[in-house]
Predict the 3D structure of the following.
Amino acid sequence: MTTLSAFNRFTDNLNEQDQLMPVLFMGHGSPMNGIEDNEFSQYWSKLAQEIPTPKAVLVVSAHWLSRGTRITAMDFPKTIHDFGGFPQALFDVQYNAPGSPELAKETASIITSTNVEMDHDWGLDHGAWTVIRHMYPKANIPVLQLSIDYTKGPQYHYDLSKQLMQLRKKGVLIMGSGNLVHNLRMVAWDKLNDNEYGYDWAIQINNTFKDLIRNGHHDKLIKYEKLGKEAMLAIPTPEHYWPLMYTLGLKTDKDDVAFFNDKAVGGSLTMTSVRIG
């Protein structure tokens, strides 16, 4: 386990940098990606080598919904196994990265649109640790989670994310974790191991989402329900889509946009991920 003295070395030096940290939207997919050595997890490991080492990671996960906005504020967040029916090896994983109460307080202070509550009960859910353990396997970088207020819509989340720009300037990696296309009710369970299998509607709307992201049409992505029946099939409930808002809201005019892990699985899920900057 990382010591408190080690984690303090990261959080004591949150000064602004010349270079903005990239911002990520991670298609996290099945919890099994947390322990499997596959093309998705391999790219997560590769990505960590391509971007600057962050001073901390702030995750907005599809799996932490709350009334109001909360942020983890404990020294060591617990590993949450928020799933069922998977092999014991997945439940045995403990990702013992430190947290940062100091960064939690600073983040709360720069968000002015709402009161952010300090949370000491949550931890790192599978939208966070299944990805980050591949990126930073030594668990030596502070990781925090910011919850999603389920009473608010996409515009609210997009606007809130803009207030986090100061953290980008200070070397904090901000990561939204969800899936662009996420319809579990329509999954072809026999095709889950086929990373090329997507229903026509899923591929179509995934391409539409990518075009809109690439061309900066965030207004249309915020009002996704106007994109037609394919969008509503892709987003039957919005929790896996909302993290994208936290990524897009932090884009500047100078940022490049790139896609990775751009694959469909099980017909009605896409792993498509976005790097900004």
